Amino acid sequence: MLTAIHSRFGNPADVLEVREADLPKPAAGQIRVKMVMASIHNHDLLTVSGDYGYKPELPASAGTEAMGVVDALGDGVTHLKVGQRVAVSGAGTWAEYYLAAAAMAVPLPDGISDEEGAQLISMPLSALVLLDFAGVERGGWIVQNAANGAVGKALALFAKPRGINVINLVRREEAVSELQALGIDHAVSTSEDGWREKVSTLTGGARIGAAIDGVGGSSAGDLLSLLGEKGLLVSFGLMSGRPLELSASDLIFKEAVVKGFWLSKIAPRLGPEKLMALIGEIIQGVTAGEIKLTVSEVFALADIKQAVAAAGESARKGKVLLRA
């Protein structure tokens, strides 16, 4: 079988290779999945480059989310069957076949397409947990940057039925219309003159209780400047690759709080029942067409170098996927 692997850390387009590997055998409690489609997430690229929160042992198989068809069952697995479509978030999913914990496999209903199933868990789940983490009540305001990213779009859409208002900051004027086409309002391009005044107009001067930063650098400082008294700034991404640039006066005089968010650390503390309830909400939203998981391009696994290069482009309108 073919698998995407890297033997050193660096630019994913340089260090990733597609190699032949032995077909893995599922251990007790595991399943083997024949990959149909897999997502390329920002954290996948950061892991390959060696800039993420953990470094795998090398050589390492890449990828953390995919959907496919159950191909084999390990001992003790009785709730799944061979031939069943599932989505799984785990390690080494950029491969024709991969192993996954059976308990974490999400059966996919017919109403979920392969393209949606391949990106069903990681980003939407991050968005839902971020909403709870922000602690903003119904009628309150959140501001987020990178709003046209997968997490940003999902967060804005999940916030609507909760009655939480979201200011969605993007860096391109074109991205405003892209969000509006998905039913996401309150979108503001920071490339426009007077964008801060536009934010104030949209909120009617109401206090912004939380800010969600996926960019870092000066963009984090922009969010902090918009926060109200005792507001919360959540750092969950580093698209700019730069440290947070925050105003000491904003921190001090607003009594602002800054917290880091990493789903890998938070999800285990939620417990399996809560996680399954959240995933059920995601499935319901996607099936109903309320949550839209968009796709930019689909590449063959053999074209991994071109795929990761495309995934690193900033002007994408959706997720880059791999197909086996």
From TrEMBL:
<keyword id="KW-0443">Lipid metabolism</keyword>
<dbReference type="InterPro" id="IPR020843">
    <property type="entry name" value="ER"/>
</dbReference>
<comment type="similarity">
    <text>Belongs to the zinc-containing alcohol dehydrogenase family. Quinone oxidoreductase subfamily.</text>
</comment>
<keyword id="KW-0276">Fatty acid metabolism</keyword>
<keyword id="KW-0809">Transit peptide</keyword>
<dbReference type="GO" id="GO:0006633">
    <property type="term" value="P:fatty acid biosynthetic process"/>
</dbReference>
<dbReference type="InterPro" id="IPR051034">
    <property type="entry name" value="Mito_Enoyl-ACP_Reductase"/>
</dbReference>
<dbReference type="GO" id="GO:0141148">
    <property type="term" value="F:enoyl-[acyl-carrier-protein] reductase (NADPH) activity"/>
</dbReference>
<dbReference type="InterPro" id="IPR011032">
    <property type="entry name" value="GroES-like_sf"/>
</dbReference>
<protein>
    <recommendedName>
        <fullName>enoyl-[acyl-carrier-protein] reductase</fullName>
        <ecNumber>1.3.1.104</ecNumber>
    </recommendedName>
</protein>
<keyword id="KW-0560">Oxidoreductase</keyword>
<feature type="domain" description="Enoyl reductase (ER)">
    <location>
        <begin position="11"/>
        <end position="322"/>
    </location>
</feature>
<dbReference type="InterPro" id="IPR036291">
    <property type="entry name" value="NAD(P)-bd_dom_sf"/>
</dbReference>
<keyword id="KW-0444">Lipid biosynthesis</keyword>
<dbReference type="InterPro" id="IPR013149">
    <property type="entry name" value="ADH-like_C"/>
</dbReference>
<dbReference type="Pfam" id="PF08240">
    <property type="entry name" value="ADH_N"/>
</dbReference>
<dbReference type="InterPro" id="IPR013154">
    <property type="entry name" value="ADH-like_N"/>
</dbReference>
<keyword id="KW-0275">Fatty acid biosynthesis</keyword>
<dbReference type="Pfam" id="PF00107">
    <property type="entry name" value="ADH_zinc_N"/>
</dbReference>
<keyword id="KW-0521">NADP</keyword>
